[in-house]
Amino acid sequence: QAKTSGRNRWNFFDNAINEATQEHIALEAALHDALDSAQLRLYYQPQIDLRDGSLHGFEALTRWYHPKLGHVPPTLFIRIAENCGLIDRIGIWSITEACQQLQRWRSAGVHIPSISVNLSPNSLHDAALPTKIGQILWNENLSPQDLILEITENVLLDNHPDTLRTLDAIHRLGIRLALDDFGTGYSSLGYLRRLPVCAIKLDKSYVHGMDTDITLQALTRAILHIGDSMQLPVVAEGIETTSHLAQLAELGYHIGQGYLFSHPLPAHAVPSWIEINTPWIS
Ligand code: C2E
Ligand code: MG
Ligand code: MG
Ligand code: MG
After folding, report:
1. Please, which domain of life does this record's source organism belong to (predicted)?
2. pLDDT higher than threshold 60 for residue 120
3. Omega before 73 cis (within 30°)?
4. Residues with Cβ within 8 Å of residue 123, at least 6 apart in sequence
5. What pLDDT shows up at residue 105?
6. What is the pLDDT of residues 204-233, one digit of tens each?
7. Cβ-count burial of 214 within 10 angstroms (0-12 exposed, 13-18 middle, 19+ buried)?
């Protein structure tokens, strides 16, 4: 009896593992095609200065709509890309695309102070990355201050010696770095001091838990103090309700982002969104 159920269990796991692997292999191949056939798109979510409602900038977020699979979540395909080595191409693609788009908006008279692009910590192993990014900015006639690169705090776990060197080189170019998903992983404040970051992004789990969890509320306050004491602005993400907004503004948060302001938008929807919604009046 026990033996059979044991064997069945193994069969079950075996199948599950095979399925997962095969699914990953299929997605990997599909992701290759997606890059080659322009299935990836950037969507743009506004970041608002909470003090005066002005536009701080936009964060670019990658979307993949596969003709058969439909919408594939970024957390899934980014992880696959990191595992199969496609992440470097995605990184360069998204920075290029975002910079081209920013230049198109500027040429059309749409003023956007800066654009943030997410960059996987894995991409930082490429020592040539800073030069490549500099070239993209040059090609698009943009200055380094136009671009902000968001890197998850997992970068702190990466002890690869190239990582810090690449971050420093990017920083020396004048490109700002923001530490994304702050408060979710292992953040050592000692490391934070050594990283050339210009902003911290408070993870949305804090904002969402703040209403009901007094500890999260205290930590949300504490993280702002950390930012203040290091002279780093803290961006609050995941602002969904006017109550979130009011609490964060009350705490003294300067920059916010979330569905309350807007979901990530396709590029064509951005100019009219700015026209109608900025300055943001709550
Ligand atoms: P992230 O960089 O922390 O981006 C914030 C995520 O929160 C986005 O999810 C965004 O759509 C979502 N979001 C924004 N406002 C709200 C809100 O008010 N409530 C809630 N519940 N969610 C909100 P998305 O687009 O699914 O991206 C997930 C993650 O995937 C990103 O987290 C980022 O780490 C990664 N990612 C997305 N695009 C790229 C990319 O081009 N390159 C890399 N390396 N990673 C990317
Ligand atoms: Mg981000
Ligand atoms: Mg984030
Ligand atoms: Mg996140």
Report:
1. Bacteria
2. yes
3. no
4. 87, 88, 91, 129
5. 98
6. 999 999 989 999 999 999 999 999 999 999
7. exposed
**Could you give the dihedral angle defined by the CA atoms of residues 16, 19, 24 and 25, in that order, rounded to the nearest 10 degrees?**
140
Q: Tell me, in angstroms, the distance from the centre of ligand 2 to residue 167's CA.
A: 16
Residue 28 CA to residue 87 CA, distance in Å, equals 11
pLDDT band at 151 (very low <50, low <70, confident <90, very high): very high
ipTM: 0.98
Distance CA 5, CA 15 (A): 15
pTM of the model: 0.93
| Ligand 1 atom closest to the CA of 87, numbered from 1 | 44
Question: 242-251 and 214-229 helices cross at what angle (nearest 10)?
Answer: 50
What residue owns the CA closest to ligand 1's atom 15? 258
Structure tokens at 267: 């590029």
3-class SS at 137?
helix
- The burial class, CB within 10 Å (0-12 / 13-18 / 19+), for 271 is middle
Q: Confirm or reject: Cβ of 62 under 6 Å from ligand 1.
A: yes
Q: CA separation (Å) from 96 to 41, 44, 89, 141, 195?
A: 12, 14, 11, 12, 24
Q: Kindly state the tokens that stand for 262.
A: 């807007």
> 161-172 and 129-139 are packed helices; what angle lies between their axes, rounded to 10 degrees?
30
Output DSSP code: residue 241: S
C-alpha of 140 from chain center: 22
